[in-house]
Amino acid sequence: MLLDFAKIPVEPVANMRGGQGTVLLQKTVQGPVKVMRGVLPPGATIGMHSHETNCEVIYILSGTGQVLCDGVQEPLGPGACHYCPKGHGHSLQNTGPLPLEFFAVVPEVP
After folding, report:
1. If you compute the radius of gyration of the chain from its CA atoms, what whole number of angstroms results?
2. Cβ distance 26 to 16 under 8 Å?
3. pLDDT tens figures, 93-104
């Protein structure tokens, strides 16, 4: 299945998951799976949240940032991939001077 993000509207989401700033999000839901492309402006964050019924994979396309996952900070840059398993929690922060662009997949896990 082709997902053409050029055809998916951009939705500004303020204070996503209790974070700071506004995330520009393109999202599609295909059955039990969410597929997203997001842009975090400098200083913006997606707040700490847990994945009780699903997991999340975040792939960094451009920019720099960090994830706080289960109390551990992980630096992120282009090409880095972060995985948050079911039953764990994480947050995402843009720590650089440029927008942090990412691709994320959130599948429900039995």
Report:
1. 13
2. no
3. 999 999 999 999
Does the pTM of the predicted model rise above 0.90?
Answer: yes
Give CA–CA dist 96/109, Å, rounded.
Answer: 32
Residues contacting 79, CB < 8 A, separation 6+: 60
pLDDT digits (tens, 9 = 90+) for 2-24: 899 999 999 999 999 999 999 99
The 3-state secondary structure of the chain reads CCCCHHHCCCEEEECHHHCCCEEEEEEEEECCEEEEEEEECCCCEEEEEECCCECEEEEEEECCEEEEECCEEEEECCCCEEEECCCCEEEEEECCCCCEEEEEEEEECC
Contact 102, 66 (CB under 8 A): no
